[in-house]
Specification:
The complex is a heterodimer.
Chain A lengths: L5 E8 L6 H11 L5 H14 L14 H6 L6 E6 L3 E7 L6 H9 L4 E7 L6 H12 L4 E7 L8 H15 L6 E6 L23 H7 L12 E3 L2 E3 L11 E5 L4 E3 L3 E5 L4 E9 L2 E3 L1 E3 L3 E6 L10 E4 L5 E12 L10 E6 L2 E14 L6 E2 L10 E14 L10 E5 L6 E7 L1
Parallel strand pairs in A: 1-3, 1-4, 4-5, 5-6
Antiparallel strand pairs in A: 2-3, 7-16, 8-9, 9-15, 10-14, 11-12, 11-16, 12-13, 12-15, 17-21, 17-23, 18-19, 18-22, 19-20, 19-21, 22-23
Chain B lengths: L7 H19 L3 E4 L4 H14 L8 E5 L5 H14 L3 E5 H6 L17 H11 L4 E3 L16 E4 L27 E4 L7 H11 L10 E8 L2 E4 L13 E7 L10 E3 L5 H9 L18 H8 L3
Parallel strand pairs in B: 1-2, 1-4, 2-3, 4-6
Antiparallel strand pairs in B: 5-6, 7-8, 7-9, 9-10
Helix pairs in contact in B: 1-2, 6-7
The chains are: A alpha+beta, B alpha/beta.
């Protein structure tokens, strides 16, 4: 494998009937990422269940309950590698707790695959999937128009889906959308180009995934370095060493840069950047590094080192698109712990502004409840300022979670407006 | 410099270091679960990098079944020495002697499942609130569902159907007294990634991973090493073979494969052409379709 091969994370959305599991099985199978003992195991199960041939969908079964009930309960991660890239699939279930799981899978994805059944065209579920992909700002969306074999590989059917999709997606914020006609069951346009659709000039799915331009997916403009932990070895060789360890959330930092530590506002300049024993002149997101400064200023976990001439907003009042993830409904004016980068404070949901009906994308200003799978615009007040960017500019410093300190559970995920 | 993106190994490394630093920041008393296998060796190497020039801020913990490859123990002691780290040993033999667990009977008896009790006892005795493991999601279908920060209740149990959602890189390690977490920094690595990384970083690994001559017995489709713990059937024959091990577990259940790969490069090349999963040679996983899930629910690694 080449040294400059990148890692691409994508999420797959669709229900059992869309052929999502079959598509993943096909990608793994045709890219030779499935092992003989795995194949033998599913051949046995296919036979036991009375299926014709090997049911590729069985590759994605995980837990015992899922095998028994034929459903996916939770996000599962799959891996495959081609000579061009390494891929991580976040395989999210179509039915149960749909929003919660798709939001989870989407949060780290470079690309979303949205499956549409060529016979049915764009349905409510397609709209939901696309809305969540745009809400979570997944940079690339690939609409796979599946089951083309069942519409006689018709170009007209393909064009109709594109038209339907473009009509409603004009309301969404998606930068890069592609459409691929395929048949996951037979392998048309998944890994190999289909002989049945000469009219399609684009690339098959795998080639598309291998060549998507993802280097610009991370913000490389605004330098943000949330401090995770402070390294103080106090050993003979490093007696006065004080290093700030963290993962660069966005942007580029260079030795000599004038920086400000937030929220204190103290300024200094970068003395050194290192990764283990290697000294670097510059470092960029998403590298994990340690940084030393030329002045001895007080910095601890939760603080953020930024370039003095490019600072995030320090705010205690946040407007957030919040996705509720917990079975227990939010209590009015309830207090939660808010986690943002390496920082943690107390927070209160002051107001639910509106709820989004994810079937119609309409705003509901009457219903102020926050229940499982709800997506609402809310106002949050924190006890201390957080150093935030808008999620649209920065997925890393624009995202938060809420933790219920009575149960310790993660109850909500939010994107700062 | 025009290139502002990481290659896949650098990105995986950066992610793992981030997870390890989060563990150090969010927990009072974490340990690295160290088996002497390649995955826990890679995790330990990543921890060395994450906290340099400071020492790794947590001890290593070994759950010792007593049925070890002697090479593994020698390797473990060497690493501890080199890192200047503290070693905690949980002994399955002690758990048996104290009556906490009973030895399995029969030809295929192993101490694999007994480790669960020893592990959970050691976690409780040492007030450990986070045990860092080398588990990977590509290894096994139940592991594909694991979080980076995975909650365990006060009985050490995993509830896979009721896990905390894990979004972006915002990990929630909050827990009540008596509960603990498992953290998996190399969740997103595959077997191939681990070998490519060992090769790139020049990490030393036990000699067992390299092809060597050894007395073995053909059982359940792999070469099981002959040892004082192995009960032989009448029709089983001990033969001398050139083998190496893809995973290292208990000497009684870890099957070798025939191989000539005696360098990391050759192993990486061999693994890239493999058509069997690495756990295919582990008889502990062959017991049933949900063998791993069942053990993990009870508190296994």
């Amino acid at each position: 494998m080449l040294d400059n091969n990148q890692l691409l994370r994508f999420t797959t959305a669709g229900s059992v009937d869309d052929g999502k599991s079959t598509l993943i099985g096909r990608l793994l199978y045709d890219s030779k990422s499935i092992f003989e003992d795995q194949l033998a195991a599913i051949e046995k199960t296919s036979k036991k269940k009375g299926h014709d041939g090997v049911d590729l969908a069985l590759f994605t079964d995980g837990l015992r309950d899922e095998r028994e009930q034929g459903i996916t309960i939770d996000v599962a991660y799959r891996y495959f590698t081609t000579p061009k890239r390494k891929f991580i699939i976040a395989d999210t279930p179509g039915h149960i707790q749909y929003t919660r799981n798709m939001v989870t899978g989407a949060s780290t994805a470079n690309a979303a695959i949205i499956l549409v059944d060529a016979r049915h065209g764009v349905i409510e579920q397609t709209k939901r999937h696309s809305f969540i992909a745009s809400l979570l700002q997944i940079p690339h969306i690939i609409v796979c128009i599946n089951k083309m074999d069942l519409v006689d590989f018709s170009e007209a059917a393909y064009n109709e889906v594109i038209e339907q999709f473009e009509e409603f997606s004009s309301k969404l914020l998606v930068k890069d959308v592609r459409f691929i006609p395929l048949s996951a069951l037979n392998g048309d346009n998944v890994v190999n180009r289909s002989d049945n659709m000469e009219w399609y000039q684009g690339a098959p799915l795998l080639h598309t995934l291998e060549t998507l331009h993802i280097s610009s997916d991370i913000n490389k403009i605004d330098a943000r370095f949330p401090v995770q932990t402070v390294l103080r070895p106090q050993s003979e060789s490093h007696r006065d060493y004080r290093g700030y360890a963290g993962r660069i959330a966005s942007g580029v930092l260079r030795v000599g840069d004038e920086v400000t530590a937030m929220p204190s506002g103290f300024t200094s300049s970068i003395k050194s950047i290192h990764s283990f024993t290697t000294d670097l002149k510059e470092a960029y997101a998403p590298m994990s590094v340690s940084i030393t400064l030329n002045d001895d200023i007080d910095i601890s976990r939760g603080d953020m080192i930024v370039r003095t001439n490019n600072q995030p907003e320090a705010s205690q009042d946040l407007e957030v698109m919040l996705c509720w993830l917990n079975n227990d409904e939010a209590k009015p004016r309830a207090k939660y712990l808010i986690r943002h980068t390496s920082n943690e404070e107390k927070a209160m949901i002051k107001e639910v502004v509106y709820k989004i009906d994810i079937e119609t994308l309409d705003r509901n200003f009457e219903d102020k409840s926050l229940k499982m799978n709800d997506i609402c615009r809310v106002k949050i007040r924190t006890t201390k300022p957080l150093m935030v960017d808008s999620y649209r500019d920065n997925r890393s410093t624009g995202s938060i979670i809420l933790v219920d300190d009575m149960t310790n559970e993660t109850v909500a995920a939010g994107m700062i407006v | 410099m025009s290139k502002y993106y990481l290659n896949y190994l650098d990105e995986l490394e950066s992610e793992a270091i981030y997870v390890l630093r989060e563990v150090a920041a969010q927990f009072q008393n974490p340990v690295i679960l160290f088996s002497g296998g390649k995955d826990s060796i890679v995790v330990t190497h990543l921890a060395k990098k994450a906290f340099y020039p400071a020492k790794i801020p947590f001890p290593l913990m070994h759950v010792d079944t007593g049925h070890n490859f002697p090479e593994t123990i020698a390797f473990r002691d060497n690493i501890i020495n080199e890192l200047g780290a503290q070693l905690i040993v949980g002994s399955v033999q002690d758990s048996i002697d104290n009556g906490r667990v009973a030895e399995e009977r029969g030809k295929n008896a192993t101490r694999n499942a007994l480790q669960i009790t020893t592990l959970l006892d050691a976690i409780e005795e040492n007030s450990i609130d986070c045990a860092i493991g080398g588990g990977r999601r590509d290894e096994e279908k139940a592991r594909a569902k694991e979080r980076f920060f995975s909650h365990r209740d006060d009985f050490g149990q995993w509830d896979p159907k009721n896990q905390r959602p894990e979004l972006w890189n915002l990990f929630n390690g909050k827990h009540f007294e008596g509960e603990h977490f498992r953290a998996f920094p190399i969740s997103n690595w595959t077997e191939m990634d681990v070998w490519n990384y060992i090769n790139r970083e020049n990490i030393s690994i036990p000699s067992l991973y390299f092809a060597h001559e050894r007395e073995v017995v053909w059982r359940q489709n792999s070469w099981i090493p002959n040892s004082e713990f192995l009960k032989l059937d009448e029709d089983e024959e001990v033969v001398l073979k050139k083998v190496r091990f893809r995973t290292l577990g208990d000497i009684t259940i870890t099957g070798g494969i025939e191989s000539d790969a005696d360098t990391v490069e050759k192993i990486a090349l061999e693994v890239s052409g493999m058509r069997q999963t690495e756990r295919g040679n582990r008889s502990d996983d062959k017991r049933s379709e949900s063998a791993m899930e069942d053990r993990k629910r009870q508190g296994y690694f």
